[in-house]
Design goal:
Largest sheet: 6 strands, parallel
Strand order of the largest sheet: 1-4-3-2-5-6
Number of helices: 11
Strand content: 15-25%
CATH topology of the largest domain: Rossmann fold
Order of helices and strands: EHEHEHHEHHHEHEHHHEEE
Distance between the termini: 46 Å
Shape: globular
Structural class: alpha/beta
CATH class of the largest domain: Alpha Beta
Radius of gyration: 19 Å
Helix content: 25-40%
Number of strands: 9
CATH architecture of the largest domain: 3-Layer(aba) Sandwich
Length: 284
Amino acid sequence: MQIVDSLLGLRAQIRTWRAQQMSIAFVPTMGNLHQGHLSLVQRAQTIADKVVVSIFVNPLQFDDKADLQAYPRTLQQDIQQLSETDCDLLFTPPAELIYPKGMAAQTKVVVPGVDDKLCGKMRPGHFDGVATVVTKLFNLVQADMALFGEKDYQQLLLIRQLVEDLNVPIDIVAVPTCREQDGLAMSSRNHYLTEAEREIAPQLYQSLLNVAEQLRSGNTDWPAVQSAAVQQLASRGFKPEYLEICRAADLETAHPGTDTALRILLAARLGKARLIDNIACDLA
């Protein structure tokens, strides 16, 4: 695996692959890799000749400086995992390459209609930071396709909208959420959980399944279903931020009898960790 941290090194390798008419897949990450990230790399290897992974902890998407400082940085461990997964190139750009004029002077990318709800409402500016850094990374790597996990479903829709609106020549490939054996969605933030919190964390996924089951059984009082699920989570030690039943296509509020392709999404705090999860629910 080649490791580069400069634009010259990155572009030189990309040009070589292009000259050999090889297709390139890209997996952007913030490091602290787990099996969910590695599943993206493994999927990328099945659809492209070469796979590029980036590791960059993007300060522009953090609305809390303490959260940014606490975010785990495990580069050597990440390198080992990627080497064992047969990644072709790891791009580790320094902040001055991504934001040469500083973040305050950085041109920002805003995706209206996706960034102002759910996690966007709870974390103002977060998705502007995501959209900006992803656009920059797409321009730097110039891959044919990029892979994103469905665990961050709102982010996935945001990036798809960005690519469509700005005519970015890249295909976005969604990969299903990776889960622990007890159902907890894999996340770099799971390491914040204490042993006791880790035991109850899978109840988030169970709540999603329970809501979906009620919708499929014909319960049309969706606000009551949501409210009951939120109250149950709160009674078990979570601090729910939202649990929403949305249209899968655009994350607008879904309505019984009208919308059938749904996504049920939630976010809740448990101790120091902010956890998110979602599942599809098709009523057709």
